[in-house]
Amino acid sequence: MATTELTADDFQKTLDDSEILFIDFWAEWCGPCKQFAPVYEEVSEQHPEITFAKVDTETEQELAAAANITSIPTLMAFREKVLVFSQPGALNAEQLNQVVTAVKDLDMEEVHKQVAEQEQDQGQEQG
């Protein structure tokens, strides 16, 4: 499956329906975004089991703001609805494939445990 356009309206459903979700935040005027786009598309075709989405930060400004996007392109990866990767800057195909492999190889039991511990720590700091 190639990349899909993601909007604020379908973000949550896409996140809920995807075990692994990669999102490329981009804009038409962004040179590095244009360089990254064919790499992202190519890698998406090599991994049909993963959802690859794109967010146009110009038309989806609220979604970009909610994701704290401050520079583009920014690549985010979610696994089991947990943000496990977020990095600005264009990657080459080898780097992107390394990120895909790393996300696929994550021990999600450990990740969920760490998230729960962080949430518990934050709750104690606020209380």
Summarize the model shown.
The protein has five helices and five strands. It has 127 residues and is an alpha/beta fold.
Spell out the blueprint of helices and strands.
Elements: E1 4-5, H1 8-17, E2 20-26, H2 31-46, E3 51-56, H3 61-66, E4 74-79, E5 82-88, H4 93-105, H5 108-126
InterPro entries: Thioredoxin, Thioredoxin-like_sf, Thioredoxin_CS, Thioredoxin_domain
Keywords: Disulfide bond
GO molecular function: protein-disulfide reductase activity
Task: Report on the architecture of this protein.
The chain has 127 residues and is α/β, with parallel strands linked by helices. The chain has a single domain, classed as Glutaredoxin (3-Layer(aba) Sandwich), CATH 3.40.30.10. It contains 5 helices and 5 strands. The chain has a 5-stranded mixed β-sheet. One of its GO terms (molecular function) is protein-disulfide reductase activity. It comes from Nesterenkonia sedimenti. InterPro entries: Thioredoxin (IPR005746), Thioredoxin-like_sf (IPR036249), Thioredoxin_CS (IPR017937), Thioredoxin_domain (IPR013766).
Overall average residue pLDDT: 93
The CATH homologous superfamily is called: Glutaredoxin
Question: Structural class from helices and strands?
Answer: alpha/beta
Label the overall shape. globular
Supply Rg: 15 Å
What is the β-strand count?
A: 5
Give the strand line-up of the largest sheet.
1-3-2-4-5
